[in-house]
Each structure stands twice: as structure tokens, then as C-alpha cells.
Amino acid sequence: xxxxxxxxxxxxxxxxxxxxxxxxxxxxxxxxxxxxxxxxxxxxxxxxxxxxxxxxxxxxxxxxxxxxxxxxxxxxxxxxxxxxxxxxxxxxxxxxxxxxxxxxxxxxxxxxxxxxxxxxxxxxxxxxxxxxxxxxxxxxxxxxxxxxxxxxxxxxxxxxxxxxxxxxxxxxxxxxxxxxxxxxxxxxxxxxxxxxxxxxxxxxxxxxxxxxxxxxxxxxxxxxxxxxxxxxxxxxxxxxxxxxxxxxxxxxxxxxxxxxxxxxxxxxxxxxxxxxxxxxxxxxxxxxxxxxxxxxx
Length: 297
Hints:
By secondary structure, this protein is an alpha/beta fold. The chain has three domains: 1-123, Conserved hypothetical protein from pyrococcus furiosus pfu- 392566-001, ParB domain; 194-244, no CATH class; 254-290, no CATH class. It has 15 helices and five strands. It has helices spanning 9-13, 49-62, 84-93, 107-119, 126-141, 145-157, 163-176, 181-186, 196-203, 208-214, 220-231, 236-244, 253-261, 264-268, 272-290; strands spanning 29-32, 36-37, 68-72, 78-82, 97-102. The chain is elongated.
């Protein structure tokens, strides 16, 4: 199947990263694959071997259709900002050079470029998507990734205090599409609080909604049982039932009242009116149980 060249990177970053609109220019340079290093801000942790093999076969037949975005480093080498999968596939295919766009980018620009470029990919898993959007928000607000979700919640609660930041978030997430930043922090951002093994399970195919339910388990045995059930195809609703556990039987009302009547302190707290009402109700109950009609009716 013939692959179509994707729009060049700069076209998708226009308006998001200051100073990189020139990335819309076509690649005019090739670099040796041995001069390139994986990027510091790569959102991907996992490269599916089967998908990479498919890309390798395509690259072997047609070459690398979309150039990599790279930036020079102090060592004389180049850091891959966007396109690490293409670089890996090119090396597997035996290519010695790949087309590149060389740009001098700040860390913030490189972080945002890597995030936005990866978010265009259909095979990005949910954990990688969350991390990429976290990078976008981090650069947009100018705060570290580990505190950006809390910052966004604060902005959501007090939107009137910093309208300019709200507008920047709206623009950034609007350009990315799919969901607003408010939807992001209320839903998928919660995945960042999951244990590492649950995050890894999401990366390798577990539905993130199921992972969020499993993450609420307060016992290891329950958590393991829910994870096994999810692997076997249990629905989100079924996992919620497991989390709630078996329904607790309600205590017999007669037992409850009998216990309360033996509590002298509770009875002593009744005022005269409450005590008179209680005595009337007890007289009615006594008559009912004995099959007689109470004179207090």
C-alpha cells in the first residue's frame, strides 16, 4: 500500500510555537543515521515491535517520506525532536541517511514540537497521549510538568483571575483537537496517579477507563483480581461491581431498636415531650405484637 506524505511539521505547529513557522519548508538536507540521538522530550515510552516492523518494510520500499525534525547539540551531533520512529525504522531497513529539517530550538520549543508531532499519530497509546498533552500544557503555562495539572485545576476554579492563561490553554488544546483542557484534567490526567504497573498495562492495551477503576482498589488481592478480570474481558461496570464488593445485609430493625432501648444514656437524653412520644409508640408496638388494640390509639 502506498503511503501518503503527511503535512510537514511546521504546518501543525503554526501559532503554537513561536519562531518555527519556517518548518513548513521542505527538507533540503540529509544526515547520517549515526549522527542522530533520541530526543529528550520524546513522549513515547513504548515502540510496538510489530508496528515498527511494518514501518520498516514501508521505508525499505519507499524511503522516509516525511523529514525528521532535529536540533544541533553542543557535541556536534543532532537530537531528534520529532520522527524517532522513522529513524528507528530507517536503521532497521538498512538506510544510512535520512532527510531532516535542522532547526535551532529552545527546550520549550523542542518539547512542544515533540508533543504536537506525536499527537498527530494514530498509534499513540493513551499514556503517551496524556504525557504529550502534559508537555503542551507545561510549555503553554510555563510551569514544570509535575505541577501543571494542579495549576490547571486552580485556573479552572478561578478562571476570572488569569483570563490570558485561560485563552492560551484554550488555543493550544483547540489546535490539538479531540478534547478541551478542562476535559483533560477531569478525565485522562488522572492516569498519572496510577501505579507504574497499571500505567504500563494501559500502554500495552488495557482500556484506560478500566485502569482508573482498578486503581481505586484499596487491597492488593482485590486489585490483582480486578486486573485479571479486566484481562479476561470484564466490562467497566463489572469492575465497579467488584470494587463495591458484595452487598452488606441490612440489620434487622427490631434488633436495632432493641439495642437502642438498652442504651440508658440515649434514653436519658430525651426531653419530656420526646419521652412521651416514645412511650406512646412503644405501647402501640406492644399492642400490635400481642394482637391487641392499644388504648392509646
